[in-house]
Amino acid sequence: MDAKHKSTYNDYYKVLEVDYDATDEKIRLNYRKLALKWHPDKHKGDNAVTAKFQEINEAYTVLSDPDKRLEYDMNGNYEIDKYTLREYLSRFKGMILTCNGLGISHTSIWYVWPSSSGASVI
């Protein structure tokens, strides 16, 4: 991370309470909901609320911009040990290569088909 980011990693998807494959619309709606909930004007004088509000704004700034979001997703700080299995699979499913993702069918090209004259390899 560069110097302008905090030394502790914030998962912007968790900050905005959205899934890792959330649509732009879902990100926008959750941002609005959280911004209203944590707005400093509603909690005058509470520095923790102001910090939370700033964190929400920072997360939205990154996730609402397609270029920044792609850079964040590709170059983020992946603290894998801090994810549950479900979160991990959701977060990294775009990077996990599967047979279908590569366009390979489930049957191998070396599958042995039984035939009446014996087995043949296709």
From TrEMBL:
Positions of the J domain: 11-76
Cited PANTHER family: CHAPERONE DNAJ-DOMAIN SUPERFAMILY PROTEIN, OS02G0693200 PROTEIN
Xref: CDD domains: DnaJ
The name this protein goes by in its record: J domain-containing protein
Pfam family name, one: DnaJ
GO cellular component: a single term: cytoplasm
Entry-linked InterPro entries: DnaJ_domain (IPR001623), J_dom_sf (IPR036869)
Domain of life, source organism: Eukaryota
